[in-house]
């Protein structure tokens, strides 16, 4: 099957005046116009192409690489608008259409917008939507605490920066965890810092320090979270008390606490340790 809006590896069937005809294993064919035909090719060999609809709504193949494909998010520039919607530059001859009903805010020529690309079920056309949250859900999470994830910076909020997690979920990087400039559309790695009871995801940039530096800190963090963010232990606590609660030596306890304190994850007081909010 030839998949619209995706990369397909197809077989070169024949060379014609308009270009090469390519096919799949189910006898479906698509034209690769002359402007995209490679200088050297052989009938019967495979070629990777992107498939979409041209200006006359005909299925067509191209060797150009679009900035976005079906099921993906990307930051695209608006080239023009009309009474029907906006037309975005996605790196191909035919611009990607974003109807008014799919615009979170009215798009303007020259503006940049984070969009999702999907196939409209009524028209079978590839279209864009800047209402990205409509294509994300945290109802059934596919990630857990401390997982490394792919994130896309979505939009700022009063609390920090909203992000798209693994192209499936929404997440938030709190202001206190942002230590560099972030721009809408930036793609990077992140860590699931916390999964809240309502399935909201707290995301951290880069590896959470204590997991790579001090494994015992993981135990302390878990104990803090299980006890409403408080642990009645200090560096003056009896070694046996520490061992009973955390199953580690006092030496390892102090080292782990030091790591967590440097990471600004805990606060140390006279009566114990507190989890930073």
Features:
277 residues, mainly beta, OB fold (Dihydrolipoamide Acetyltransferase, E2P), 4 domains, five-stranded antiparallel beta sheet, 18 strands, 14% helix
Can you describe what's shown?
By secondary structure, this protein is mainly beta. It folds into four domains: 7-62, OB fold (Dihydrolipoamide Acetyltransferase, E2P) (Beta Barrel); 73-133, OB fold (Dihydrolipoamide Acetyltransferase, E2P) (Beta Barrel), CATH 2.40.50; 148-205, OB fold (Dihydrolipoamide Acetyltransferase, E2P) (Beta Barrel), CATH 2.40.50; 212-275, Arc Repressor Mutant, subunit A (Orthogonal Bundle), CATH 1.10.10. Helices cover 14% and strands 38% of the residues. Strands 3-2-1-4-5 form a five-stranded antiparallel β-sheet, with no helix packed on it. Strands 8-7-6-9-10 form a five-stranded antiparallel β-sheet, with no helix packed on it. A hairpin with a 3-residue loop joins β12 (160-165) and β13 (169-174). α2 (215-226) packs across α4. The longest helix is centred in the last third of the chain and has 13 residues, at 250-262.
Write the layout of secondary structure elements.
Layout: E1 7-15, E2 19-23, E3 29-33, E4 46-53, E5 59-62, E6 73-81, E7 85-89, E8 96-99, E9 112-119, E10 126-129, E11 148-156, E12 160-165, E13 169-174, E14 187-195, E15 201-205, H1 209-213, H2 215-226, E16 230-231, H3 239-246, H4 250-262, E17 266-269, E18 272-275
Parallel strand pairs: 13-15
Antiparallel strand pairs: 1-2, 1-4, 2-3, 4-5, 6-7, 6-9, 7-8, 9-10, 11-12, 11-14, 12-13, 14-15, 16-18, 17-18
């Amino acid at each position: 099957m030839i998949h619209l809006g995706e990369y397909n590896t197809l077989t070169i069937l024949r060379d014609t005046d308009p270009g090469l005809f390519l096919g799949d294993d189910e006898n479906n064919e698509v034209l690769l116009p002359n402007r995209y035909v490679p200088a050297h090719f052989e009938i019967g060999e495979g070629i990777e192409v992107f498939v979409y609809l041209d200006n006359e709504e005909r299925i067509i193949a191209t060797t150009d690489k679009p900035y976005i494909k079906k099921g993906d998010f990307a930051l695209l520039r608006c080239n023009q608008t009309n009474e029907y919607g906006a037309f975005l530059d996605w790196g191909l001859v035919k611009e990607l259409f974003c109807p008014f009903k799919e615009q979170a805010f009215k798009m303007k020529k020259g503006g940049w917008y984070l969009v999702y690309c999907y196939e409209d079920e009524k028209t079978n056309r590839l279209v864009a939507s800047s209402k990205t949250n409509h294509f994300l859900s945290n109802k059934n999470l596919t990630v857990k605490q401390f997982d490394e994830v792919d994130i896309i910076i979505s939009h700022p909020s009063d609390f920090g920066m909203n992000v798209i997690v693994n192209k499936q979920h929404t997440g938030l990087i709190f202001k206190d965890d942002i230590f560099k400039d972030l721009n809408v559309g930036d793609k990077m790695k992140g860590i699931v810092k916390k999964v809240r009871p309502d399935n909201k995801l707290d995301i951290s940039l880069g590896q959470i320090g204590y997991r790579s530096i001090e494994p015992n800190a993981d135990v302390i963090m878990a104990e803090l979270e299980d006890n409403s963010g408080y642990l009645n232990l200090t560096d003056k606590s009896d070694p046996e008390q520490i061992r009973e609660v955390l199953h580690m030596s006092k030496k390892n306890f102090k080292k782990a606490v030091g790591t967590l304190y440097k990471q600004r994850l805990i606060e140390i007081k006279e009566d114990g340790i507190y989890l930073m909010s």
